[in-house]
């Protein structure tokens, strides 16, 4: 699946080489051909190979992916081979490499987090937020999905999430906080009857009130695993409200949050992952 359109990919090339590759154009005959191969230098979860192949195709190369996004690769595993003019390959080289390294870094992090959570309970959802780098949301979403995680929300238009900021800014004059919470949850149910109502809370009291007023999901902001466990223990028996832990979730504490009773782990952590290391080899094609 390619999530970046041709115009976006060509824009990446224009940013890096607005007037072509001056060094290669000065040195290489126009008909000089070459081969370029990409391989995993370290173990990684691959993402972005489809975009890299398409980018190279757009500048006249023939690209042959060895695997697809989501593949778990060992060091040395082949990713992509391309043939074409030396000028085309050298111009597309770094853009294609960087795109795969960045996306694979996010995918690898998402896989590590998901595996840590699923080692305790395979039914727990790991959901990555919309807090990706602006302009990179589509590729970020592809990367976390390639890593086995899910999407918390792709944007403000697709889910209902009632933040404390909504409750503060949109409260009626003189209205008590719990009255605001109850009124806003009821208003959301009327306006969006087919949507799950998620309420972010910052204290146990807010969480219990939200559950009492019918929230489907209690999103516990920056609760520790111990605080999550204490809150879960205080929910009424048979409460339909699901508990989501949000803020500061990493592979190091994911298992603790799951054991505490969180059914959803909400995280932005993969987006700050170190890029994966993709090795590139270029060689003249003498055939």
Automatic annotation (TrEMBL):
Assigned GO CC terms: cytoplasm
Single GO molecular function: nicotinate-nucleotide diphosphorylase (carboxylating) activity
NCBIfam families cross-referenced by the UniProt entry: modD
Keyword Transferase: yes
GO biological process: NAD+ biosynthetic process; quinolinate catabolic process
Presence of keyword ATP-binding: no
Pfam family membership, one: QRPTase_C
Domain Quinolinate phosphoribosyl transferase C-terminal, residue spans: 106-280
InterPro entries attached to this UniProt entry: Aldolase_TIM, ModD, NadC/ModD, Nicotinate_pribotase-like_C, Quinolinate_PRibosylTase_N_sf, Quinolinate_PRibosylTrfase_C, Quinolinate_PRibosylTrfase_N
Annotated signal sequence range: none
Record SUPFAM superfamilies: Nicotinate/Quinolinate PRTase C-terminal domain-like, Nicotinate/Quinolinate PRTase N-terminal domain-like
Keyword terms of this UniProt record: Glycosyltransferase, Transferase
Family, as annotated: Belongs to the NadC/ModD family.
UniProt protein name: Putative pyrophosphorylase ModD
Gene3D superfamilies: Aldolase class I, Quinolinate phosphoribosyl transferase, N-terminal domain
Domain Quinolinate phosphoribosyl transferase N-terminal, first and last residues per copy: 21-104
């Amino acid at each position: 699946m390619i999530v970046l359109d041709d115009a976006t990919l060509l824009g990446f090339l224009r940013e890096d080489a607005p007037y072509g590759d001056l060094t290669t154009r000065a040195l290489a005959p126009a008909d000089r051909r070459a081969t370029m191969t990409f391989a995993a230098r370290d173990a990684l979860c691959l993402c972005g190979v489809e975009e890299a192949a398409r980018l190279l195709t757009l500048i006249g190369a023939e690209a042959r992916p060895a695997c697809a996004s989501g593949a778990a690769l060992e060091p040395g595993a082949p990713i992509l081979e391309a043939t074409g003019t030396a000028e085309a390959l050298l111009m597309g080289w770094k853009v294609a490499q960087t795109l795969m390294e960045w996306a694979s870094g996010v995918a690898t992090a998402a896989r590590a987090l998901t595996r840590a959570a699923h080692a305790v309970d395979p039914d727990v959802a790991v959901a990555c937020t919309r807090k990706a780098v602006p302009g990179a949301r589509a590729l970020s979403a592809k990367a976390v999905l390639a890593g086995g995680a899910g999407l918390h929300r792709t944007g403000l238009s697709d889910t209902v999430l009632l933040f404390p900021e909504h409750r503060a800014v949109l409260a009626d004059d003189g209205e008590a906080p719990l009255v605001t919470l109850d009124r806003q949850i009821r208003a959301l149910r009327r306006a969006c009857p087919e949507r799950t109502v998620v309420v972010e809370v910052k204290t146990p009291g807010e969480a219990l009130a939200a559950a009492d007023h019918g929230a489907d999901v209690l999103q516990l902001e920056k609760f520790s695993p111990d605080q999550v466990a204490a809150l879960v223990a205080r929910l009424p028996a048979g409460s339909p409200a699901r508990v989501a832990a949000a803020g500061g979730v990493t592979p190091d504490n994911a298992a603790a949050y799951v054991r505490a009773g969180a059914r959803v782990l909400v995280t932005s952590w993969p987006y700050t992952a170190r890029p994966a290391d993709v090795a590139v080899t270029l060689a003249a094609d003498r055939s």
